[in-house]
Amino acid sequence: MALFSKNPRTLFLAVLVLAVILPWIPFGPSSNYLLRVLTTAVLYMILALGLNIVPGFTGLLDLGYVGFYGIGAYTSGLLAIHYDLSLWVILPIAAANGALWGVLLGAPTLRLTGDYFAIVTFGFSELVVLFLRNELWLTRGPMGLPGIPPPSIFGYTLTQGWQYFYLVLFLLLVVLAVVVRLENSRLGRAWFAIREDEIAAQSCGINLIRYKVMAFAASAAIGAMGGAFYAKWFRFIHPDMFKFWESILILCLIVFGGMGSIAGTMLGALILIPLSELLRAVLPQGMFNARYLIYGLLLVVMMRLRPAGLIPFQLSRSRKAEQAKARLLGNEE
Amino acid sequence: MDALLKVNTLSKSFGGLLALKEITLKVEPEQIVGIIGPNGAGKTTFFNCLSCLYHPTGGQIEFKNIPLAARISNIAKKRIRIFALIFLTLGLIRLPLFWSFFLPQTFFKVELFLLGLFVLSIRFMLVRGLLRHEIWAWGLMFIFLLSDLCFAIWFLTHINLSDVLILAHMPLYYLTVPWGVVAGLFSLYFTGVLCTGEVRRIYGFRTSPDAVCRMGIARTFQNIRLFFNLSVLDNVKIGHHGRMHSGLGKTLFRTRFQKEEEASTEKKGLQFLRFVGLEHRAFDLADTLAYGEQRRLEIARALSSGPKLLLLDEPAAGMNARESENLIRLVRKIRENGIAVLIIEHDMKVMMNLADYIYVFDYGRLIAEGTPDAVRENSKVIDAYLGGNSGVC
What we know:
The complex is a heterodimer.
Chain A: H1 2-6, H2 8-21, H3 31-58, H4 65-83, H5 87-109, H6 114-134, H7 136-139, E1 145-146, E2 152-153, E3 156-157, H8 161-183, H9 186-196, H10 198-203, H11 208-234, E4 236-237, H12 244-257, H13 262-282, H14 290-305, H15 313-332
Helix pairs in contact in A: 3-8, 3-9, 3-11, 3-12, 3-13, 4-5, 4-6, 4-11, 5-11, 8-11, 9-11, 12-13
Chain B: E1 5-14, E2 17-27, E3 32-36, H1 43-50, E4 58-63, E5 66-67, H2 74-102, H3 105-127, H4 132-158, H5 161-166, H6 176-195, H7 198-203, H8 209-215, E6 217-219, H9 232-239, H10 248-253, H11 256-276, H12 291-303, E7 309-313, H13 321-336, E8 340-344, H14 348-354, E9 357-362, E10 365-370, H15 372-377, H16 379-386, H17 389-392
Helix pairs in contact in B: 2-4, 3-4, 4-6, 9-11, 9-12, 11-12
């Protein structure tokens, strides 16, 4: 463990190798099911990383994240059905569409502070669901969107569970690279400054609206990309999949893992999503919905014992500072 | 040489309460200027006006001969009002003609959409210092004229012109087509002028706090406002934000430019920390610093934005004698680097030692100014601090 905490790159590589060989460990008949659970967990890791940018980095409560997820999913589904585009075309288009709506929603409303902004985002996610449900000409409304063709990569169509798992893993790596780069840059520092103290941030030359909109757009783009993968993977989408509760679930993941810390966010998703499946197996037949009760209980216990999450923001920052120290002092010697 | 900062009859009122009244003040380059005064004299309000956190109700601030927060001049105001009134009246006159005779429902929708857009932008415009009724006049004008343009376009694309011209009884409302073209274009032009920087020169729109910082005024706060959950070095790097140039694209692709900029920012940050004597704490969280160190970190953060003028709001508050001596040395060192300092302080020893020139505030008014020695002897200042005859009776 000591080796890992000193060198996060070693830990990262170890986890990555584990993830890559995971589909090939024989679990018997349930291995397909396990793969599905893992793919879901990784998908939620992507979503949590995306959402983390707004409440975690910038300090704005966003309750409408699932709206962007839905936009991405429907963009991907519709493009795949009507134009039969390749996955590598669909993913950027979906992300761009998400970012576009992020900017359109963010630019006028990010002047609002705190709770008012949260209400606006909540309204937005409801609007997206209403739109998907009612605009039959585009989305087929409550009938859902069946028959999305499976993704094909270089002419090779994905069918097996492990192929999807590798795909989502690849997407996670891309998103992780993006988020890590953003975090350690001028942009990320501006977001942290806004989160810590808006007035001081302004006085340091940071244009609040501009950076808030950027955060919102980046978060929306990642959410939409997650949605695009989801549509291609599940091959059927329905407005009810993008209800408000999904937003709360993703928010729970990052609160549980540690708002603002990238490792914490991923850990939160990795623990809570499979936990739900575990509870499905453990709980008796009729009590299946009690798992949300257990979720709630877990969060309450968490808030009492470790209010800043599994890996708190402060901890991740001080670790980062230690790394910077090692790097800089190493250079000087 | 021209003064760095010129403040001319600056006033600020909150509702009916007059916090600042006609303050006139000047800071030369590389000068240390002090502001003293009893509590509630409006010193911090004055700083907030300078850094554009507050919007002054009257007067002008010029930094490097650029106006920061000038109000709209009276002539400009009149011009706005006349334009707005003319077009508003014409718009209202054509309203019944439009809506009752022939207007397809879509145009009603266009006008409603524009109205919504306008209502959304009201706050945005209010911030920029226009009066409420002017905004309404301007906005309604914009809506009417733009929908006229929309109508004209629709008309030209949907109606067979040769049929219309042959008609003996040409309806009156066909006249709205040329009108729509002229009015719409004018409205677009007017709005364009409103949105460009040219307007700031003419009408004196407000500069935002971040723009002020990038122009070269940095400040510290009376109650410490650090980014407590970030490391000390990160705090200073954030201060350097306005001097960096890598945006989203450069960050995502981590170009060479971005890497070099990060490295040089890091190096500069450490230099600024060395300057204020905090280098040994560079990698600790700002939360863990002692009070005096936090004050110095705030100064380092302000310096890293590369200012020409530094505003210090009670930097020596809560410091012991040795610490405030260090502070005096630090401020002198800052001045030697070519930065003017405007400083609010209650500690008279610090002030008399440091300042080249002192302004004394009381109840939002400037009651005295001069060199430290002159201010010390000034009877008005003594009255304000100790309570003279006028205060007792």
